[in-house]
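**Protein of interest**
===
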Amino acid sequence: LINCCSTCLTNCTLGNLIKKKAIHAGAACLGSVNLKGRSCLTLKDFSSDEIKKLLWVSGDLKHRIKHEKQYLPLLQGKSIAMIFEKRSTRTRMSTETGFSLLGGHPCFLTSQDIHLGVNESWSSLDSVMLSWLVYKHSTLEELDREASIPIINGLSDLYHPIQILADFLTLQEHYGSLNGLTVSWIGDGNNVLHSFMMTAAKLGVHLKVATPKGYEPDKGVTEEAHRLAKQHGTQLILTSDPMEAARDSNVLVTDTWVSMGQEEEKKKRLKDFHGYQISMQTGSVAKSDWTFLHCLPRKMEEVDDQVFYSSRSLVFSEAENRKWTIMGLIVSLLTDYTPQIPMLKF
């Protein structure tokens, strides 16, 4: 027994030393990642380490500002132009308050205030502002080609990268680690799903997707997601059966079935999405620790009250993290900031 315990103690000590060295090596690796000057149109363009660095910076800012009550004027003297083609509560509030909290000056502009490409050339704002756009994705790509400053996609018809950063920070905080989790998307094959598909595999997360027939994700995005899953050794499963997608999953996610501009399709969409509402019955086939995400605003047909207001629902933490992750993203694109907290466990 004595020999056995001594051997176990030695093994545990060696194991801990190896683990600590691996953690330090990982922190050093992420610490060397520099995103200054980059744009963020889609997380498709970011590597696994780059996404982890963004989440680490976001978690660091949240800890230092929210919990330690530190003032970090990292963006003092900088301005951001937030140009919106569609209304957005969380995107506008998280960006305005977050940018101000870091000492910068946010400028909110609507399509009535400015006409890029018509009365204003692409380059007329380029020399003075970081630009925040809500546009067709092709327009974002055109602007990024012309601009010499970082462009951030607040939401486009193809991707919603800032939402996914908030989602994964929320899951990292709740579960303590992301690697090996299974996320199930049950709903429309939209821009939020596309961003999940471009990100999950890079974080070691399995993804199961249930969409009604005719509402599948973009073909090109799907092909790239399969490639990423193969590269990173994760699963990507696409189905039209919500219960099949939910089975053995850690996280159930949905979004609006009727987005802005789709109001005329509402009656047909509600019929086509029948059976896709997330309820406790959906969760009954998931893992015992399952949680729920929704980027908001939520409607009753998408998820019932029993799930939405339950302890399994992380939607309000998720909404708060929109601010911390957009702050982390902007700081990473504009500065050489190094996180002060230990590296997050991924």
